[in-house]
Amino acid sequence: MIKHVVMWRLKEKVEGNTKEYNALEIKKQIEALQDKIDVVIDLEVGINFEESSQAYDV
């Protein structure tokens, strides 16, 4: 089994969209990969709602 952890910090606003909106879009698109990549058995995507300078957003 291979585990891979990826975390991102997002900018407050990109192309007119808020950080929250972009985080939800990233989550939706990553979750859609499970149906497109047959070797992916399980994946989890979480959005961090804690405001901290050390926290990642997705």
UniProtKB/TrEMBL annotation:
Start and end residues of each Stress-response A/B barrel domain: 2-58
SUPFAM superfamilies registered for this protein in UniProt: Dimeric alpha+beta barrel
InterPro entries assigned to the protein according to its UniProt record, in alphabetical order: Dabb, Dimeric_a/b-barrel
Protein name per its UniProtKB record: Dabb family protein
